[in-house]
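Response to reviewer comment R2.3. The reviewers asked that we include at least one raw input/output pair. We reproduce the pair for Linoleate diol synthase here without editing.
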Amino acid sequence: MKRGSHSSGVAEHEHVELHSARHDHGVRPHARSVDSPSKGDPTYGKHDVKLSGLRKAVAESKRPLPVMFGDGSYPVDQSRPGKRQEFKALQARDFKTLYDILKGKVKDHGIQDDKTMIMERTIQIVAKLPHRSRLRDILTNVFIEQLWDSLEHPPLLYLDGPPEDSKLDAGRRDKLGNLKPVKYMYRTADGSYNNPLFPLRGAAKQPYARSVKPRHVALGALPDPSLVFDSVMGRREFKPHPNNVSSVLWHWATIIIHDLFWTDRQNSNISNTSAYLDLSPLYGSDQIMQNEVRSHVDGKLHPDAFADARLNIMPPGVCVLLVMFNRFHNHVAENLAAINENNRFPRPADGDTEAAKKYDEDLFQTARLVTCGLYINITLVDYVRNIVNLNRTNTTWTLDPRQEAGAGAGTPKGAEIGTGNVNSAEFNLCYRWHSCISKEDTEWIDKAFTKKQLQHVLPKKETDRMAFQEFAEMGKTSTRERTFGGLKRDENTGKYNDDELVHIITSAVDSVAGSFGARNVPLSMKNVEVGGIKQAREWNVAGLNEFRKHFGLKPYDTFEEINPDTDVAEALRHLYQHPDNVELYPGLVAEDSKKPLSPGVGIAPTYTISRVVLSDAVCLVRGDRYYTIDYNPRNLTSWGFKEVEYDLDVNHGCVFYKLFLRAFPNHFKGNSVYAHYPMVTSAETKKILTDLGRHDQFDYQKPQRYKTPKDYTTQQDYVEHGEPFRRNVNVLSNRAAEHISKSENKYKVTWSNGFNRIMGTWNKYLSSSDNDYRKAQAWMDHELRKDNGQDNIKSFYFQITKKLINEKSYTLGYHNPDIPCELQTHVDIIRDVGNMAHVHFASHVLNLPLKTKENPKGVFTEQEMYRVMSAVFDSVFLNSDPVKAFPLQQEAQRGLSELGAWLEKNAKTRSKLPVDRAPGSHLASYGSNLVKNLSKDGVSTHDITWNYILPTAVAMVPAQAQMIAQAVNYYLDHADLVMKIHHVAVQQQSRETDAELLGYALEGIRLAGGFISCREATVNETIVDERVVDGKVVQEHVRIQPGDRVSLTFTGMAGLDPTHFPDPQRVNPRRPLESYVHYGLAAHGYLGTTTTHAALIGMFRAVFQCERLERLRDQTKTEPERYIEQPQGITKKVTRSVTSGHVLQRSDSHEESQGIIQKVTSVASAHVLQRPGSREGVTRTDGVSQYLTEDWGTLRPFPVSMKVRWRPT
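Raw output as returned:
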């Protein structure tokens, strides 16, 4: 038997299993015994072996007598082996290990490649080194430190809350004294338990901290606070902000300030709110406040209400922002319930009170986490980018304190996270930014807080800092009845008028804020400022110079350094005699302000504030467990996490538009600068975006309730005002669908408007009209009919579908001779087959640059091409979500620009070649022939690309893919029908089997329902629609206006109309084809009816040839539980009901009734109580559906994924 090298400590045997490759790190993989454990190796520890026998006796004979100790013992040898002994114990490859350890320690990337066996190699070294070796101890300590640092000590993540503790319960009791249990995953109302180990850290009703120890002996007699205000703080004349920052930024700052500070009137050392950015002005600072703002139904808040009455006396723009957050919270609660991720929010049974309470509580708390997520993202990106002037650059960098550090991020270990926070008295003073109040807000304050208005509240009382708090508490009305800014609530809904709210917030956007610096505080704020000076003295805070030194800033030596303005410096000299005597609060206000610097200085604050505020921002966010350790998709849900996250590819991460568009979907366009960049005036934003080359992406008109297209008379109106609002008029019945299908000139498929919206400018890309698109459509339909074209299409779809199934499928399970069906073949029938088949067809006939095995030089992969097509289709025809519209358009624009450039270049080459007349080649050569014929007619290659090829390609793919996905999905819930279709599909192809397969496909589409076809009306008319009420058909008259977006919603009536479909709930594959007029409309007739029929036949034959086809289910669950669990075989979707003739508002309208989110979270969930395999009593979801992406984080208008399996042949 051969022996291997002992350096590894493993004896190599003849029968070994070798690693197939050598690691890049230069470490040779060791041979592993197949059937024997590793052998002993005396190489390790040989220096630790005691001397034996005669050698030991000889050594001991040379020792002197033991006279050092009284007990006659010898001293213990404490010497360490020398470096020579250490190095002698090591081998050459051990030095490579030492180098790797040192390199990892220096770089401190945290991430190790465990395939290099670095841990085991370290063990080998320390085992070889002599006893008491210094290197052995060092390596052991490094090893222990690494193992220790891998876990938190103590942990901050827990699965549940703490046991009840009477000492901490006061803030968690409601009006009846009932204790609200704590769950660590949810925020408490008072901010306690943010740090589970120190539950009161940062909680409400706790004392302020002190940031700086005051050491300087200040003046014994300080100047009169009123005189200080008049000398260095009070406004002489309004000084506008040098960067044209808008009032919205200061309104946002007002919310932050009131979120963090609320000095108790009885004990000014106590803050009545938490030290966290937990949006307490909306949700309240204790359980009682929170209970008053909650509706306690479905996790929602009372309409347009917020908890903190202090904000009601702020300028109205502040309150509008809180109303917007209220609406966003309720939007989130609705969607969380509708999606019901992993049955996290199961709707309680009627009469189950406890379950209803839990349902409401879980929805509310999760919606709060999500809403706070948007709050903090706006603060860290939109707000901070403006503070440091990053909004004037194209950089994607931003100061996000939550940035991951350490092993998980592959970087050195960063600052601690999630440890909690406590606000200090000094920072209470730092956040009083009254100098920046705009001229308009100053006028509002002057009117709101006159002596006449306050005298009945504060008669004969000094109007100091208490005035605002007294006035805020003047009305003890409930949150539902409280109002602001002279607005009134609707008596029925309790909401404010959207027009008035939008007017307030847009006026604030165009209102230039004031400047930081001396002598710019509105005179109406004098009493508040005087109170602030007095309060700072009560707190005994350090002076300005001591505060600066604490943050490493140079203290001021002269008054001119504090402010170079001679008058201000002189006033400070007379007030304080020496710079060290200047008080903190007056000093912060009277300092000189920084000049704008791009990037670097955006809001131009005074020097000290510009430094300390950033420190506080980092501590506030990084110390908050709910924004760091617990900020993840598990706590917020995947949808909630994605709903509020920022995307650096969209507005460099700015997300303020999400709040605007959710709150006011009928006023703000998806690309309005008022929504996207409200913290700078709109005029200044236009200049900034022009300098950055992005001005053509946005609309600069002041938002107002949408006008309809009838108000536009010329093309110039579109150029000047952008695209108007198009009413979404919904019709349901086959009768209406038939009318529209026969009135092509009245109801047009429009492409140009939506296309130009994507690309940003009118007539830049489309020099022709929608007639060109229809001309291309007709030409293509004609060409595809020639030379047995329909048979070729049918064959193409069959072959490509079979090819995709074979290429994309995989086998899971194991083969057991006793259970032969356990081995299953799986595939994602939507993502990898259905969607891709149409991509291949469009690419094949239009010569799109699809990257495949056969065409490795292509530009777009299958999935990339589908994403571009679906993004463009959604933007042009559906525009399904106003918040997602802008990022969707950005995605579509990037894809279209690249694809269009390639196609235009390709068209120039193909236009010079002769037309291909070869028999049977017209399908593959269609794109070339289209280009050649259009060129022959004098159409430029630019117009061929942008007016013909791209619209046709986009129109081919997503809608067709949706139809086949919904039909297959429908049948997978009916095993007996799957078997029948399989029986037809495996038969020899014939006219009869083709007709039967087509019949099954059309019936599946009909019964699946839930899709929309959009047309643009060109006439004024009233059409007759129908709906079913109590089993009877009721006619409704629907008024159509020019420019209306008419949505033919194929739900309920259209698919189950007994007039068109006798016995409508029964699958009958032999119905007359003319009955399916709705399908032709839903497909927009892109390929022509016969062409789409050929595609359906080919795909249905290929898919249903799979034996025992079924959706992938969770086999550990029994029916109906597996539907609730939503395994990978279920197409996850949310369905919203629609009403015939109803003018649909844009998503999340807060004024008029809208589609109600039904309790439908998946296609299969409508069949929960129906036994699979039975087609009796067909159940269908009645409404318009949006589909969840595979991570369940985003809703899309098209099906995304559904895994199926079948028995392999």
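The chain has three domains: 6-50+81-149, 197-705, 729-1205. The first strand starts at residue 16 and ends at 17. Further pairs are available on request from the corresponding author.
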